[in-house]
Batch of 2 targets.
Target 1
Amino acid sequence: MRITCPHCGERDRREFTYQGAAKILNRPSPDAGNDAWADYVHLRDNPAGETRDMWYHDPCGAWLVVHRNSVTHEVYGSQLAAEVAR
Amino acid sequence: MGYSAWKIFTEGLTGNQGWKPVWRDPAPKPAYDAIIIGGGGHGLSTAYYLAKNHGLTNVAVLEKGYIGSGNIGRNTTIVRANYFLPGNSEFYSHSLKLWEGLEQDLNYNVMHSQRGLINLFHSDGQRDAFVRRGNAMINQGDDAILLDREGVREHLPYLDFDNIRFPVYGGLLHPRGGTARHDAVAWGYARGADQRGVDLIQNCEVTGIDIENGKVVGVQTTRGPIKAKKVAMVAAGRSGQVAAMAGMRLPIESHVLQAFVTEGLKPIINHVVSFGMGHFYMSQSDKGGLVFGGDLDFYSSYAARGNLPMVEHVMEAGMTLMPIIAKAKVLRSWGGIMDMSPDGSPIIDKTHIDGLFVNCGWNYGGFKAVPASGWSLAHLMATGKPFDAAAKFRLDRFNTGRGIMDEEGTGSQHNLH
């Protein structure tokens, strides 16, 4: 699996650390209540197919949202998490 | 038809012409008392114990592939009860007791071999953690023996004891741990359930779960609709997709875990050896192949195959621990889809939908749990109350925060187990 870092170009998967589903960017407000927070922390769509998840590029320190396929391992593209969250 | 030594002898003399298929291949009926989605180890054992312990035989197991096509046929066959947190401890203890009577119970040879499992440690701190774990195992009524370096050497003389990074300080021996023939476990439970009247329906994928007024009323499948008032979702790595049909999301992320087997070799590895610091474990199958694996690839995946970095890592860890295996040729590698829960512990519970049950979150340890998982889910489905030893496997623990069972102590978060 090779992942493209917007800063560094296409790199080996070994350079990246996986964090989890990109829903983590949609943080509920502090007073959203227990259910919203329990959902945010624990519940997952866990899609079989297209997925967007968070990867950290260790050498350059960028957080990425990687668009890929969890069934075929194909990587479609990636964006800086900072831009996605904006 | 029961199996016996006499039967094998007479069949051997008559050309093995008398063996018959051991379970039927029925078409689905329009309705059942209970439906189990998923014909893997956990689903089959649930059906078996529903019939055997609770007399519920109007039951169907719906399997989208064939019996034994999922993780029950893809794991590394290890059976153990070396957990230490309340909740897990009593459950796996119960499971190991069921394993010990399983072959007699099923009249089926699952090749359960209690060859002993040794967890190695490489520092004083890790030794203390294993002493604690061993005490917890003994308190639970199971067995654990702390081995010092020389004690490990007696059992595993082929290790690299003086490895620079991870010198072997000792190990925790779990004598009743071991392995079993994974496929045979599926077949044994399938046969036992079928003999008691359960319909095992293969090539039957569930495409929808019918819910009316908050109650489950049946399922839609590729072989037509089937009604039932009780439906259990026992879909392991695919739990997320099955639960989505009921409008649910689960605290589950599916990951790939790889496993490997070498060519057949003469007996050398007599135990299950686990090298936690290197993320490596190994046993030797009765056929002679070294069966081994490591850690997750650490990204969500349904591919049932992994990537090379983890292959490399596992091989390196194996070589670090036991250079003796250097010339063994790896025949195959494969991956299984692991239903990872945030705290690393499983879920056997009702859902908010009346009559809908869920059994998932087995992480990378579902195989040894097969007997007790089915036993406990069957108890819950039949009586409406959780089985004592599985009562802590609640779905709502991630919402309430009560009863989180984080065996590794790393935190209750998806990417930490």
Target 2
Amino acid sequence: MSPHKNILLVDDDADFLTATTLVLEKSGFTVQTCMSAKECLAKLKSTRPDLIILDVMMESDHSGFDLCRELKRDPDTKEVPVLMLTAVDQKYPLNFASAAGDEAWLPVEDFIDKPVDAHVLVERVKKLLRIE
Amino acid sequence: MTGTIKKTSRKHARIVVMDSDKDVLKRLTKSLGEEGYKVDNVEETSKMFEKIKNEQVDILILAVDSLDTTGYELIPMIKKMNGLLPIIAISADDSIQMATKVREQGVFFYAMKPLDMKEMKLALKNAFKRSIVRQYEPIITQKKRVVRKDFEEEILNLTEASKILEVSKHTLRKLAKRGELPASRIGTRWYFIRNQLFEWLRVTAAGNQKNYGTLILETMDEGVAVVDKRLKIVSCNSAYLQALDVPRDKIIGEYCYRVSHRSMVPCEETTCPVRQAFKKGRPIKSMHVNYDSDGREHYCDIIALPIKDKQGNVSQVLEVIRDSTEIYDLNKHLNWITNFFAHESRKTLGPIMMNISALVDNRLSKTIGVKKRNEMLLSSLCSLKLLYDMIRNYMISYKGQNRTIQCYKKAVDIEHTIFLPVIDELRPLFCKKNMNVETQIRGDKAVYCDGDLMKIAFSNILNNATKYGTEGTKIQCVLTVNHKGFEFSVLNEGIGVPRNKLDDIFERFARFDKLGISGTGLGLHVAKMIAEMHNGTIRAEAGFFIEHQPVTYDEFYVNENLCKIKEKNIKRFARFILTIPSGEKGKNSGGVT
């Protein structure tokens, strides 16, 4: 089992949050969830997660891109790795920059296409958190 | 003017005589030849038609008794070929019936055999005069009267004709004088009929590639222009003029960028397909967005094709403009739909995949208890239902748009074949959100409607209430059925509907940002479509719960006491009411508006 690592899961799909939280918790992580960018920014003031899993196509106030840009700009959260979830078929990080409409796009640490297998997600999370 | 014709008539009038009687032919040829007419004899119908079609014939003398079949039957066919050709009918049959039949077909003169040559000569003279006048009548009247726009296009002077044919005025005049080209002279000027010119071009094109090219340009639907190295337009077709809405004389010799972009400077070499085609010597395609006078966007495909000289250098570029706005719009919509469905399906599949893959994962599944396992399966089932509904709703709305959906009405027991089965089907959804469905049923008459479609409408309305309802609350359904039809209302506590969106919510793909809820914006739209197919209605009501009673926005805001309550602190509700009149037996309707 992994040492206690905190993951912040941001997605506006309640069903996905429930399923993913369960999978991550059963894999030994502590999971906090939020359903909007606003909620996420508020939560980050009090907690410092080891990893942020972020959905790119949130329909509420901010898109995942905007939120991610904000996180990477903020010196407090800059170092926290971000795993981006997408429901758009993107294979290369370069395309990502243009999809975000930002030349100076700071790439995220990793990204996964939705839908995703439970064990694939756990593997990727472990890799990012450097857990054997 | 008549004088000119008189002077030349004896020399040029060409007469075709069609008669099987050789004696008559001989006499006519001799006698008319003396008068200066050029006479061609034919004995067969096919030859006569050939001559009328391919040669300049001024008058036809037709023996209506010369054939086995009655000769006058040929007259309408001749008139179809050349409506202006005067026909002099001759016959040995002096019956009144024959005369009537021939005159009915409309001939210039009807003469009896044996022919009175004096009479014939007079008839020929007048026929020829009329032939000439008729042929050039449009020109004469047009030049005399105020210029009419449609005529302007038809009649060309020497300068205009030389531009179209791309030959010098001198050559054109020479050709016209020699009679090699259809033209007419009024005073000292030459006039040409546009259609005749193109017809002539078509016939003589084989040996003259340049003119052939002009003709091809003219027959194309796309706007086409030839641009030279200085970027000046050398030639263009009518479609090009139409596309840019400019007259021909303002285009030829003008810089292409001034005409097409209304710009005073040439476009960048890298973006201009014409300049690229000059530079690279191969066809270049690009897309331009033009704006018409109404400010609408027009997507134009521009194809620049290089024209090379013998040395292989690009001497000119053919610029083809194709308005592809319709295709672009369709494509844009198709793209949008595809992306929308790809995204929605992936999103819906997300939790299903996560749950099922966790359940089959050896290590993970060991840690999941029975209760959790059931929850995960239920959640997956609900997501699958969502996916299925999305596909079904899209198909119905698509069919509705194309008017290919049929509505088969028959007597339906709304309560037992629609209402209760739908609630059963949706039970997993209610269960997942821990929602309770309260039903109230009044009356039990059968209603004429399409049961399958109505089931979908019920399902969509209830689904909507579950999706946007608060967890652990109840959904109140009331079904009232009587001989006039039925009313089905569904009320749920939840995020409600914004006051200004009560009508918009039925629009196709209408979605409002709602946290944690995914919707495709199709369910209610389809419900409305089905209601309209049954001449029924669906409407939305929304407002607040005051002491457990629903109070609509309208009732709420007019009540001073209620207005004092902070909106944030009150629970909201949404209610959808479907009203369907009972259809008539045997009356089915297809399509929706």
